[in-house]
Design brief:
Strands 1-2-3-5-4 form a five-stranded antiparallel sheet. By secondary structure, the protein is of the alpha+beta class. The longest helix is centred in the middle third of the chain and has 17 residues, at 56-72. It is globular. Strand 2 and strand 3 (37-43) form a beta hairpin. Helix content is 20%, strand content 20%. The mean pLDDT is 95. The structure holds guanosine-5'-monophosphate (5GP) and zinc ion (ZN). Zinc ion binds at residues 1, 4, 6-7, 46, 96.
């Protein structure tokens, strides 16, 4: 998608520092972090969200990216939260599938951070 910011970042059109990259996904820090560690895991192919016919190989790469990034940033042991906002009511603002990985501080016990 030519006007999609995450397509441009994930495919190198906008130079970015990746914490993880393989043939299907990249991971980079969120521009507006909500926790000490706030990383986005983003497929290189454009899918609007988690239920937009995402190939199993891409989902497997996302899991590998989460494992690598949480090890690298030191939150694998302390714990972290993965969030995929889906649709406007959930607060999705970038309509290209991405998983937020948050950690590095107590995040609270509720599903919805207050
Ligand atoms: P959403 O609200 O769609 O679940 O999350 C989109 C996230 O992307 C937000 O947390 C926002 O800060 C982040 N974001 C938007 N544009 C950019 C960008 O150009 N670079 C980076 N690194 N993050 C971005
Ligand atoms: Zn896109």
């Amino acid at each position: 998608m030519s006007d999609c910011i995450f397509c441009k970042i994930a495919n190198g059109e906008i130079p970015s520092e990746f914490l993880y990259e393989d043939e299907r996904v990249v991971a980079f820090r969120d521009l507006n972090p909500q926790a000490p560690v706030h990383v986005l895991v983003v497929p290189k192919d454009h899918h609007e969200n988690f239920v937009d016919d995402v190939p199993a190989e891409t989902l497997a790469s996302m899991e590998r990216a989460v494992a690598a990034v949480t090890r690298e940033t030191g939150i694998a042991e302390t714990g972290f939260r993965c969030i995929m906002n889906t649709g406007a009511a959930a607060g999705q603002t970038v309509m290209h599938l991405h998983m937020h990985v948050l950690g590095g501080a107590p995040l609270g016990e509720g599903l919805i951070p207050s």
